[in-house]
Every structure is written in structure tokens, then in C-alpha cells.
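A reminder before we start the practical. When you read a complex entry, don't treat the lines as separate problems. The point of joint prediction is that each chain is placed relative to the others, so the output describes one connected object in space. Small molecules and nucleic acid strands, if listed, are placed in the same frame. In the example below there are two entries. Take a minute to note the order of the lines before looking further.
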Amino acid sequence: MYKSLPLHKREGFLVIMKNIRNFSIIAHIDHGKSTLADRMIQYSGVVDARNFKDQMLDNMDIERERGITIKSQAITLPYRSKDGKEYTLNLIDTPGHVDFSYEVSRSLASCEGVLLLIDAVQGVQAQTVANLYMAMEHDLEIIPVINKIDLPAADVERVMEQIDSELGLDPYTSLACSAKEGTGVEEILEAIVQKIPPPKGDPKAELATTIFDAQYDPFRGTIIHCRVIDGTVRSGDIIRLMHAGTTHKVEEVGHFLLPRQKDVRLSAGEVGYIIAGIKTVSDVQIGDTITSDRRPCAKPLPGFKESKPVVFASIYPIASDDYEELAVALEKYKLNDASFVYQKDSSIALGQGFRCGFLGLLHLEIVQERLEREYDLSIILSVPSVRYRFMLTDGTVLYIDNPAHYPDALSITKSEEPYIRAAMMFPERHMGAVMKLCKEKRGENSSLSYPSPGRIELVIEMPLADVIYDFYDSLKSATQGYGSFDYDILDYRESKLALLDILVNGERVDALSQIVFRGTARERGLRACERLKEEIPRQMFKIAIQGAIGGEIISRTTITPYRKDVTAKCYGGDITRKRKLLEKQKKGKKRMKMVGSVAIPQSAFVAILKSDNT
Amino acid sequence: MAPGLYIHIPFCLSKCDYCDFYSVTQRGKIPLFIPSLIREMEMYRGVFGRFDTIYLGGGTPSLLGADQTGQIIDALHGTFLFSDDTEVTIEANPGDLTREAASSLRATGINRINIGVQSFDDGTLALLGRRHGAQEAISAIENVRGAGFDNVGLDLMYGVPGQEFRSWLETLHTALSFAPEHLSCYQLTLEPSTPLGLKYRSGEFVPPDDDLLYDLFMKTSETLEEEGYVHYEVSNFARGEEWMSRHNSKYWDHTPYLGLGPAAHSFSGARRWWNHRCLDRYIEEIGRNMPPIGGSEILTSEQLLLESLYLGLRTKRGIDLEEFWERYRYDLLQERHGLLNIIQEEGLITIWDNHIYPTRRGLAMSDSLSSL
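Here is the predicted structure of the whole assembly.
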């Protein structure tokens, strides 16, 4: 049913490194990455037409729907080149959001080249540039590919000029294709063989393998996705994860064909998987180095970072009876998402739940969506927060990411919040809008550079709290989609903080509380009230929404009740119909959380943070 | 409580643009329908206890000749038991109510007549696709009074596109000038499958907004109560409690009823079933000696509770909390304490003497109230 690997890769044969190409496709959103990957997969014949589906590498429904890649994926494509030789092309697909930039960097570290995909109509975009820089950092061969040349508005010449002027690449190295129609795909495959260098490395050296992803398989445990830099790993070997400090016995190694294809070994230059009886993905850190326990390499491969959650929120079941079910779902979910952390938590308004840590807000939304879809749970999330630091009068240092644990104001001697160093790149004409945005977000210590004419790189320090929620979206609107954004966590800095409470009809809703910067607290309170007014549907009674700091009301809004809601006729035949409608409404209400007598929809808890321009 | 008996007469001269009740215009089928109806009665002989209401609805029951109506009523009496003071209602179109027709209806034993006046404004009547004019409606009322009917109900409609607030009040006052025992004031519902509903969806007109509808509802209720009428259900008013529709009240307090004729619904206290909404199929299945039932449901106690809430809060009767506890073992006051307090403060309900009563404003919100 599936085509097997070329001869040189069959069991028992030695790997011929010069016939391997490891590459990734990077692109601005919607420039056709998944479609091009699909065409290459089809061309290679690794999957037949019957088993093919669109966005082959995007396994999750969410990925297909949102058109984004969340998990890294890899696939091995057998290819017979015009030179008559059989090649093994390893395509490593990367996530496309700043929340996952570390994962992207690990994937790129496993490649020798990239296809830089550019839409023939839209031309070079922010993410194109950001991706290019990331690829350059990893010293990768870059092949510009102009996609969507079939569209009537395609302007290949203009895009070629941009490749020259804005990217600083030789436009004559670029290829043109229509991934949709499948034209130009063969030329791309040929260019991958001709231009991207084969991997280097010594199969006989000490084992050094970089992990770029890990996925959970209910039957086999963790499947490590990796690239062997040096050495060879065979089933039966004892391997050591250098940062984790754990050892495991290799059960199986192999390649990412469809389905996975077992092999006796993975050698330097190869991309593949390792199964070593590791129960959960949390035991495997992305970027960790795998070496041999018996003959370890001298030091781990560079670039490892421990993935740390930066955004925290509590998850509660909408129906408190579902708590156990939620606990089971989180445990299962965690098996496949090492960057997600959680622990028990409880709220007065929302009952028993879990405090969770995420890489960013997109990560949070993805977890929420997956819990609802894959585990059929109705959940509610409290307002997301970063982790603050407090020094108390008794000398203790507290890290607080949950507003419910905000210390007594009188006992605080110093409060601090996390800062980041943000790097943004955007066209010069958006300078004013971006600076205004950064000022609103309390940016400081900015520095500017001009990497290419007309393009600005802005490095600026900002409090993380002001960035996590909607900064990326705001930046995109400030730059008409041309702004790219990346950040590193810097340090903690002193800041005046306050606990903003929200009262709905006089009742404090602890899950809506947030820790805020004192200087903008009033604004935040007002915004929160207004957002809630938009999110909470009118009900049959008046709803007062108030923002309060330490008992002082700082903002308020009112949702006026509606006055008329009645069906005129109700006789023999109408009663069943009406009851069914009521039953349906009741079901719909299950997606709302009752706070006192007010039904608050799930969306309110996240929406409270979004600012006006998104 | 004694069960009620409903007969659906599925014939009309023509279909009105707003109506989604089941009816056909093929009057040629009346001679086939009546024997089927009588056979259907036979299928339920002995199933229900003694009835104390008969309601001939439709369609247009007044379209039948008095002899046909008499035949149906006689057959009912030959099949079922009725109490002596049975309320016998017929729905009638003004156009059918000549003095003679009214008298012969009275002779069949019908003691209550409900006239589909809808409006005393010719423009509104035309928009609704009614066949009669205002003058005809006035004659019809005079004719039924003349024939000795002392329990007359008028159906009126408001919230009609283009209808002025004042025009509605004029219709209301004209209606009051006849001192009817009963008034049904329906806000126009734009049913999706009707010609008017389709026109609405294609944007041919904009219906009155909720604020106007609310004002109309409140004004109607105030006006009629000032005139001594009891606003006893969302859309129904009686000139004293003794004139409330005994039959329709059964729908609202879960009293069992038997519905005969196509599309008619029946309720036994736990089960609800309904006949085929198709005259031909109705006749055909009865011809094969089968009950012409299109569907049925057995209500769980939870569903009954939900209906009870909904129906109770549509009526002046409200909800008897003790009875509610007896029936459903649900302490409404305890369980929904917070919300009940709020909506009492909002003036939508009154909690008094172990009852929850909807206020006038509460009736205007009764769909929401039922989501208690």
C-alpha cells in the first residue's frame, strides 16, 4: 500500500549520507505551506491517493481548521532525482506561532536547508522575514519559492524584486510553483537535492542526537522525533538524555514513512524516531541531547532551553460533577504535551479545578479547545496571569500566578513582575503605530536597527503581563500584518501592583480577578467591565458589573434587562415544541457558568483581557 | 379534573398569510372526513373519563354545515361521557356567521363561540390575508348575540407590520363595545413556513421592535383590566373568572385532553401523542382501522416539571409551590432562591402564600421566566 524507502535505506544497508536532505518549509501564514507539503507528499508516492487527505501533516482538527501548525511533524519522502540516484528527503514541518518559537528553532537545528515560501500575490510579508532570519541564524541553505503563480493577480516579477531588495537573496535562485495545481513541484524537489547540502557528521563518533519533538502513542509510549548529528543509535542500545539525566533502553528506531517504518539503526545525518519505553512526553524535553550511555559524547548539543510556562490560568468544569472527568482528561492530555503543567486549585465562584501553566495565550487556547473536543468537556478558564514576585515584611519571597493567592497588601514590601526583551521587525512606515503600541504596553529601553532599507528592527523591554494577551494581535493590526515578533524572558523588575476584583451583581467572582499594574488599574477595570458587558447576554434582570481594588469601586457598567420575551400562542400542539426549545436552551446554558444568578459565558473569562483594537 | 375533548376541523376557504395551523382548502373532502372522525372517536371509547369540554377548532369549523356539526356533536355524545355543564366551543369566521347559521349552531348544543375577528381595521385585515372586512365582523358579533350566545369570545391580533399603536387601541375599544365574555389578543407570530413569515425573511417588511411590542402588550393588559377583564393567560382575557376558557385552561395545567382529527394533539397525563398532519393519510389509516397517530412521547417527570413551570408562569394561576413539591419533589423556592429573589425585585413575579405569580411584566417575559 505504501511505497518503501529507496534501496540504500533498506534494512542492513549502510546509510549513504550524501543522499539525504533534511529541510523545512517556512512561510507567512496562508502562503501555502501545508498545500506544498501535501503536493510533495503526493509526488513522492509515500501515500497513495486513497489514503491522502489535505493538510496531511496537520493531524489535529484544530490545525486543519485554523490553518496553523501546532506540533512539529516530520515525514520522509523517497525521491529519484534526475541524476538517477535515489534520495531520502526529510521534511520537518514547524509550528508557526511565537508561543512555539523554541520548538521551531529545534526543528530548524535539525535541517540543512529551508524552502522559504512566498505568496505570488501578497509578496514578502513579516513572517517571511522573521523566518528568513531564523533560518540564517541556523546557517541554513535558503531556497526562495514563489507560490500561487496560478492566481490571476500573481506578480512574480515584483516578488523577485522583493526577494532581492527586502530579503537580500539572489532572486535568480528562486523557484515558482502553484502548490494548488501541483506545477513546479518536481523542480522544487530537484532543487532540494541540488542546492541543500547533505548532512555532515560521523556515524562512528559518539552518539549526539537532537530531539525536536516527542509524541505520545498509547501503545508504545513516547515517540521521540530526532535528528542524529553524530554517531549511530540501534535498537537495544542504552541511551542517555543528557539534560534529563535519565537512561533508557531503545526498543525501536525507524523512519517517518506512512505508517512509521522500523529500521535497525539511525545514523548521523538521519531524521527518524526512537522508542525507548518512556512513558510520558514530559520525561522528554525538546532540545535535549540523546547520547549513548556506554560511550557518551563530551557535551550536549547547543541550544537547549528548558520550556517554562509563562501564562497561568485555572481550568474548571462548567458542571462541578465533571471534576473527576476533567482530572482524567488533563492527565491524558499531559501525556502528549510536555510544556503544559497543572496542579489542583479551587475557586469560590467556580468550584474545584486546576491551575495550569502555558507557553503563551495561543497554547492556552489550544489546550482549551482540545480538552473540549477530544475529551468532550465543557470547561471554563479563569483570567490568564503571569507569575509575579512579592517580598513580604517577614522576609519571605512569594511567586504568585494566581490572583486568588494575592498577599495581604499591608504585608508587601516589594512587588515585581516579569519583563521580556521583545524583538520586532516591521516596515519603517509603521514605526509610529508600533511605538505607540509599545508605549501603551509600558515598553522601555528600546533600540532600533535597520537590517535592510525600509525595514526596522525594534528591540524593547516590556512587562510580560502586557504582552501575553493580545500584543501579537495588536502588533499585527498596527503593522497591517507585516510585523514579526519574538521575545525572551529577561528578569523581574519592581512594579506597583494591585488586585483588581470584578463584582457581578455585588458578588465577587474570584475567577475574574486579575493582578494589574497600579498605574493603569482604572483603565483595566473599565475595560474589563466593558468587555463583560459585551460578553454577558442580557438577562431578565439588571446586571451590575463593577471593578474594585481593595474594596474601592473603580469602574462600573450595567447590562439592562430585556423586557419582552413571550410566545403568543400555547395550545395542544405548541407545548411539546416549546418544551423541546427549552431543553435545547438548557443545554446551551450548560456552556455558561452560573455566578449567583448570572449566566456568564466561557468566552468572558478570556475576553476580559483583550483590548479595544482586537 | 375532567379531561377535555378537541376536534380539529382541517378545512378553510383559503389560507390566511400568517396561519400555520393545519388546514386544506379541498372542501370536497368533508364528506370523507366526517365518517373518519367518527370512526376515530370509536377508537378511544372508554379510554378517557367523563369530559367537560368540547372544542371545535381548526381550520375553520364554521365552514361545516350545521347538520354536519350536529352530526359530529351527536356522535361525540354517542361515544363518550360528558358532564351536564360541558363547555362546547366552536371557532368561527365572521363570514360564516349569518343570523341563521348562528342560530343553527346554537341548536346543536354549542354554548360558546369564538370569532376570528383579528382586527376592526380593513387595512390590517387585508395584510393578514383575511377574507372578511371590519363591517362583516361587527355583523357576525351582532348575529351570534341575536342567536342567544351568552359566551362570546373574540380573537384579535396586534404587532402586525404597519399597524399603528392607535389603530390597535381602536380595534380594542371596538371589541370592548360588544362586551365580549372573552378576548384573545395575540401578538402576531411570524411562523417561518407561512407566506407572511417568508415575506419577513426575504426582508419585505420590518416587524415592530421589542420595545413597541412590549408597550402594546402592557397597554392591552392595562386597558382590559381597567375594563374589568381578568388577564388570566399571556394572550387571554375573560370578563370575570367564570368566562375563562375552561377548555384551553386544561392545556395550561396539564389536565388530560383527547384531540381528534388530523394534526390534533392528545395528552394522558404522562404521554402525549399527535395525529398525522395530513388529511389523506388520516383518512387512509382510519380506513385501515389504525389510529392515525403520527408520533408520541412519554414525558419524564423532569420534562413534566419543565412544562409545568413554563405553563404555570404563562398564567395568572402561577405555580402552586406545595403542589409542585407534591408532584415533582422539587422545592422550587429553595433550589432557585437567588434567581427568584432577583426577578421578584425586578417586578416580574410575586411570591406570596406559597405561590409564584407572574406579574403583568412577568407575563411579557414568560418565556424567560420558564428558564428558571
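Discuss with your neighbour: The mean pLDDT of chain A is 86. What might explain this?
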